[in-house]
Design brief:
Elements lengths: L5 E5 L5 H14 L4 E6 L7 H6 L5 E6 L12 H20 L4 E5 L1 H6 L5 H10 L5 E5 L5 H6 L2 E4 L20
Parallel strand pairs: 1-5, 1-6, 2-3, 2-4, 4-5
Length: 173
């Protein structure tokens, strides 16, 4: 088995989670065991996870509330939930049960101060060579970009949110 890598998907454009889930589906198709840990997202909140949870070898766990987390208005429950998600990610990497681990929105949880960037960077540096790791979020510090093997940026050119169109079930979630 080749050494597995760390991928980071960043930017203000739509599609980071979809790209990560697409990577998960590709890995599942090759017989990999996949764990998706979602930060800032409630259980049962997205069509991707609802579909993938039906697939053998795929497990998703959500660590978020139904309420949006705004910068400067972080609730104690938001911090507890994100910390629990990061603890779960560390356990998952230590256990060696997964071939691919996706940490969706972990970078946003870190930028909001819910989890420390240092712990996220430490997770990347200690990742076993037998695990492919994918992290998503809008922004990443330079230290994380340097530690990653692949970094893709998603750029928003135009989005219906700008005209007031709300998130649509089956499209945005």
């Amino acid at each position: 088995m080749e050494k597995r890598l760390t991928q980071v998907y960043i930017g203000d454009g739509k599609g980071k989670t979809c790209a990560a889930v697409g990577q998960a589906v590709r890995a599942l198709g090759r017989g990999w065991r996949v764990l998706l840990i979602q930060f800032l997202k409630p259980a049962g909140g997205s069509g991707e996870t609802e579909a993938c949870n039906r697939l053998e070898g795929f497990v998703s766990k959500q660590f978020g509330s139904r309420e949006f987390v705004y910068p400067g208005r972080v609730r104690p429950d938001d911090i507890r939930s994100a910390q629990a998600g990061l603890d779960e990610a560390e356990r998952a990497l230590d256990q060696g049960l997964w071939d691919l681990v996706v940490l969706d929105e972990i970078l946003d949880a870190a930028s909001l101060g819910l989890v420390p960037y240092d712990r996220v960077l430490d997770l990347v540096r200690k990742k076993p060579e037998t695990v492919e790791l994918v992290l998503t979020g809008r922004h990443a510090p330079q230290s994380l970009i340097e530690a990653a093997d692949l970094v893709s940026s998603f750029v928003s050119v135009k989005h219906p949110f700008e005209k007031g169109t709300p998130a649509r079930k089956g499209i945005e979630f």
